[in-house]
């Protein structure tokens, strides 16, 4: 075992021990006996993971250090006892997500990574529950959750238009501040629009395609787990349904029934344990890229457009007015996702955008004076 391996195993051991301690604290504080039992079983799973890393260290003649909870773990446990279990569920979900990525990136056993992914989903599920079990609307949302291909396109559209407008407005104002010729400003703006659109599209394609490849890998791992260790998958699935409000026997019976057909089981586990829709896999990378390209271009052309017909100070003022209107409209669209008021979101977008434009205009003016002087 190399020094790097030793360090990695010690980090995994510490993380799993802290997670087990947190789940035990949650089990003690949880008033709902069904949810408390889920926490105890999660703690047992994390303790099993910790034992795996401890055995690997012992096999390499590396001393296993005594366990001492980190300050973060102690703080979260204090919050559990002071404010209740629900206060730390988002933090636990984030920790499990980080654990999943760490295991995948550093070559940990595939089963552990899948379990960490399942635990993160459980934390998100439990956070939507009431003491009587999950609300019906929440169950319906979870059961019917499908990531439509349009979801990535919509996200890419809003971000693309916003980035295009902000970045190109700043670029145009910087060049205008340098008091360069109108044709130079126009050429710079068009070049910025094209370069930014291509960059945005490529980045979005890589992002979505990488996610798809990761999902495909996780589904392959899940398929291997179903074939080689079906009992463990039944256990994980039963835990999920318990977290949704089913009694233990009913949850286990449902899990066993689903696992009787491996094809159906793979689809169910992909959705419920991994949170992946096998039919969509996060949406189309090309759809997201194309939407990103065109929406960035639409946003980027707004501050450039006035320079086609005007020049000098009038072109700068017209560009700022058009950009402010575009920024306010984008802010209005963003309220669909944030729930903020139109006035708040739109005004914030305008102020930030004009602030960035002012900074680049001043920098351009200073550099322009310096060069010509």
Number of helices: 15
Strand elements, count: 2
Biggest β-sheet, characterized? 2 strands, antiparallel
Q: Regions with pLDDT < 50 over 5+ consecutive residues?
A: 130-152, 369-373
Q: What's the rounded overall pLDDT mean?
A: 77
Helix content: over 70%
For the biggest β-sheet, the strand order reads 1-2
Taking all Cα atoms into account, the compactness measure Rg is: 27 Å
Number of domains: 3
Q: What keywords describe this structure?
A:
373 residues, two-stranded antiparallel ribbon, elongated, 3 domains, mainly alpha, disordered C terminus, Ferritin, 15 helices
Produce a short descriptive summary:
Helices cover 82% and strands 1% of the residues.
Description:
This protein is mostly helical and 373 residues long. The chain folds into three domains: 3-126, Ferritin, CATH 1.20.1260; 149-203 and 283-372, no CATH class; 211-272, no CATH class. Helix content is 82%, strand content 1%. The chain has helices spanning 3-29, 33-59, 71-83, 89-105, 110-126, 136-143, 149-177, 182-228, 230-243, 248-259, 262-272, 285-304, 306-309, 312-338, 342-372; strands spanning 129-130, 133-134. It has a two-stranded antiparallel sheet with strand order 1-2. A hairpin with a 2-residue loop joins strand 1 (129-130) and strand 2. The longest helix has 47 residues, at 182-228. The radius of gyration is 27 Å and the shape is elongated. Residues 130-152 and 369-373 have low confidence and may be disordered.
């Amino acid at each position: 075992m190399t020094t790097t391996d030793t360090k990695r195993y010690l980090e995994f051991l510490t993380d799993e021990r802290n997670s087990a301690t947190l789940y035990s604290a949650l089990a003690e504080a949880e008033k709902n006996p069904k949810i408390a039992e889920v926490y105890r079983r999660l703690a047992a799973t994390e303790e099993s993971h910790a034992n795996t890393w401890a055995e690997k260290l012992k096999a390499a003649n590396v001393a296993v250090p005594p366990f001492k909870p980190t300050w973060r773990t102690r703080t979260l446990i204090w919050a559990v006892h002071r404010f209740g279990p629900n206060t730390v569920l988002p933090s636990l979900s984030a920790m499990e997500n980080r654990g999943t990525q760490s295991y995948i990136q550093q070559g940990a056993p595939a089963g552990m990574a899948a379990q960490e992914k399942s635990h993160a989903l459980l934390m998100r599920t439990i956070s939507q529950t009431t003491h009587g079990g999950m609300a019906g609307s929440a169950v319906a949302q979870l059961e019917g959750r499908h990531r439509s291909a349009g979801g990535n396109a919509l996200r890419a559209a809003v971000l693309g238009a916003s980035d295009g407008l902000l970045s190109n407005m700043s670029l145009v104002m910087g060049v205008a501040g340098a008091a360069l010729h109108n044709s130079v400003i126009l050429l710079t703006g068009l070049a910025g629009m094209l370069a930014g659109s291509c960059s945005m599209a490529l980045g979005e394609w890589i992002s979505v395609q990488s996610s798809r490849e990761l999902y495909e890998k996780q589904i392959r791992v899940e398929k291997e787990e179903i074939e080689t260790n079906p009992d463990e998958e039944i256990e994980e699935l039963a835990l999920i349904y318990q977290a949704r409000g089913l009694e233990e026997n009913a949850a286990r019976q449902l899990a066993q029934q689903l696992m009787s057909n491996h094809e159906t089981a793979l689809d169910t586990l992909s959705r419920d344990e991994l949170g992946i829709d096998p039919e969509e896999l996060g949406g189309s990378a090309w759809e997201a890229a194309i939407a990103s390209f065109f929406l960035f271009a639409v946003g980027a052309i707004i501050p450039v457009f006035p320079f086609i017909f005007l020049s000098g100070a009038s072109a700068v003022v017209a560009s700022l007015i058009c950009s402010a209107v575009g920024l306010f409209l984008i802010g209005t669209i963003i309220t669909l996702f944030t729930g903020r008021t139109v006035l708040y979101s739109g005004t914030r977008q305008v102020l930030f955008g004009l602030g960035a434009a002012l900074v680049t205009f001043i920098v351009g003016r200073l550099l322009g004076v310096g060069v010509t002087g």
